[in-house]
Amino acid sequence: MQMLFTLGVLLYTLGILLAALLGHPKAKQWVEGRWQQRKAYIPDTVDEPNEPWVWFHAASLGEFEQGRPVIEALKQAHPDYKILLSFFSPSGYEVRKNYAYADEVLYLPADMPWNASKWVRHHHFVAAFFIKYEFWFNYMRALKKEGVPLFYISLILDKKSFFFKPYGKWFRRQLDAVTHFFVQDEDTVALLHNVGYDNVTLCGDTRFDRVAAIAEQAKPFPEVERFINGRKCIIAGSTWPPDERLLNDFLPKLPDDYCLIVAPHDVSESHVERIKAMFPKATLYTEWSALPPCHTEAQPSVSMGGNKVLVVNTIGILSQLYQYARFVYIGGGFGVNIHNIQEPVTFGCPVVFGPKHKSFKEAVDLVALQGAFSVRDAAELEAIFLRLMNDEAFYAQASETCRNYLKSQVGATKIIMQGFEKALF
Question: What is the bridge-based pairing of β-strands 232-239 and 258-264?
């Protein structure tokens, strides 16, 4: 079965190579990045044996954010440890390749036995952390062979996973390489217990620790405050075209004492132009922030085009902009899946999103608790928006629900660090 798994990885890798040759941009990045780093991750020499390394592996950017609180807590507790951060996806690597807390950031080479063996022997790891779903069995076997403790953090599984299928015996055996599982929910605890793994701790999602820290450190944005100008604010984050059409349908019903900030997932010039065509009087964030404060304060109607919409056509600030929202719409729910709702929840913002949200525990939990609301069409969006605007008791209860949910979820990093210290020392 190990040979079949490795063959599957080989075929998958060949498929990416073919896609790269055919011009697929992400596949091309995947291949070129690994080719440029081939000597870094399959070296002829090994590191100094007295240099302790800890390896963190994330599939992409979202998983990195879940691992980030643990990386930073570990670096603070053990500044002598070197951190190797690896990514599977270009979308993670390209954004975080200069991450300050990592001593080395690399693409993970394909999960072949020879790659795994060289990788593990090279770095003299004292521990490894795999984040959420990353099950690379040749690497897991290599870590076990070298006696390196392996921890899973923010793991969440369901009964549909291949581990729990009738044919899943071989896959379950690979979990013997794991020193400890730090998991998000009680269902995952039960599933692992049922197949014989008691080395499990329920601690929640580490990303809540990260977003709580962001909220505590949120800086003011004077240019945004000037745009809001005393009005109540709805923020639509990580939107896609179906979300933007719904928001445009609602715009005529937006009261005069409200404004709308739209932060699309895709901030390419072509997509921003489409949004501008949809909201013809909207102001771009880059244009608005470039205006001197005296101009925006003296002539707000001219500067804003008499409009209530600001389009954030840059990245990196959305998580902190939620501090200004009364409530939030999160995009993606009419496509593959919703984007991050933890960031607005941290600020006590009730959240609205489309129907594709059930892969995220926090979204399901908050819908049940009435801190978040799922809508299927423009009529349902209008109904919940108007209720959050006009029913003060309903809004206050939803906001308090979000704050209380956050308080119940923080603390996973501390639990993981305690487990790590216990396992190693």
Answer: parallel
In sign, the C-alpha dihedral spanning 74, 75, 78, 82 is: positive
pLDDT for 46-82, tens place per residue? 555 668 999 999 999 889 999 999 999 999 999 999 9
User: Per DSSP, what are the bridge partners of residue 150?
Assistant: 128
Domain hosting 261: range is 221-407
Q: Do 198 and 277 have their domain in common?
A: no
CATH of the domain at 33: 3.40.50.11720
The pairing of strands 82-87 and 283-284 is unpaired
The Cβ of residue 190 has, within 10 Å, a number of other Cβ atoms equal to 12
pTM for this predicted structure: 0.81
pLDDT tens string 306-323: 579 999 999 889 999 999
Nearest C-alpha neighbor of 69 from the set 335, 342, 337, 341: 342
Nearest CA-CA partner of 358 in 61, 164, 200, 158: 158
Whole-angstrom distance, CA of residue 87 vs CA of residue 377: 37
- For residues 340 and 355, state if they share a domain: yes
Tokens for 127, please give them.
């521990």
DSSP 110: P
Number of domains in the chain: 2
Please name the helix (run of DSSP H) or strand (run of DSSP E) that holds residue 76, with its range, or none.
helix 61-77
Token couple for 241:
């075209």
CA distance 361 to 186: 11
Measured distance CA(72)–CA(74) in Å, rounded:
5
Contact indicator for 332, 353 with CB cutoff of 8 Å: yes
